[in-house]
Amino acid sequence: MKSVGIVVFPGSNCEFDVAAVLESNGVKTSFLWHGQSSLDDVSGVVLPGGFAHGDYLRPGAIARFSPVMAAVGEFAKRGGPILGICNGFQVLTEAGLLPGALQKNSGLRFLCKEVEVEVETSDSVATSTSNAGEILRLPINHFEGNYTCDIRTLADIEDNDQIVLRYLDNPNGSMNSIAGVCSEKRNVVGMMPHPERACDSLTGLTDGLKIIQSFIANI
Amino acid sequence: MRFNAKVQVWLREGIADPEGHTISEAISALGFSGISGVRMGKIISLELDADTQASAEQKVDQIATSLLSNPVLEDVKIEIVKA
Questions:
Q1: B42-71, pLDDT tens digit by residue?
Q2: How many distinct structural domains can be found in chain B?
Q3: Which of residues 5-34 of B touch A (CB under 8 A)?
Q4: Three-state SS for A61?
Q5: B67, closest residue in chain A (CA to CA)
Q6: Domain locations along chain A
Q7: pTM, entire model
């Protein structure tokens, strides 16, 4: 059975939502405590949302030095599928596994709302079963979601088709309305929206399933 | 030798500074005019042992660039004095 490890830092808070969605889609999950140095043979890794290490200093700044992150880095290098959601995205950028950084929202407001994003590429582990141009309605919930990088990096990731999701109506000042990016090898994806919170009609939205199912298809 | 270090972390030139902008607007709302260039940064102070000023600088520089700042967004200024 396929199994996904969900990394838990002190202050993570979306790990149970991620686990519930994956389990209900037939995937075995386990929690990987940030202090452990191996990934226990999992075939995919999710870094969930929350406030790892209290977001002290900057979101992800301290989490990237947690022992588990060395193993996550190795896993990324081997081509293992990794999905970082919200705080998990911030951790992946701080760790240098994804380009850019997430800066405070341009309006300095904590944003908690539904947004529409466009799938920019189907060539990533989180969008492989979607089509480019598809519009997904997903919730966002963040204060630091303003995607920022230098101009050269921006040109590179645009040219390399590394933008995975783009906001239709930019809520936070992100450069080029970027909501999610992938690594050059396309196996590491980070996104600010929370697909795991949009997988059950009981809670309103179901477009998150498309992201989750793509990820499952790649593990 | 014991040293006192102060690390200032500033958003790099050209990176939007929403906090600085908001503080600037609040200053205007207070009725002050002619105020500009408001920026928001952080200061982290620490004490350390090192054999020489140069090795203290090297250590603090490593700490500042690997953990205290994110080079994608931020620059650092380091001041070190003998304790």
A1: 999 999 999 999 999 999 999 999 999 999
A2: 1
A3: 11, 15-16, 18-19, 22
A4: coil
A5: A61
A6: 3-217
A7: 0.94
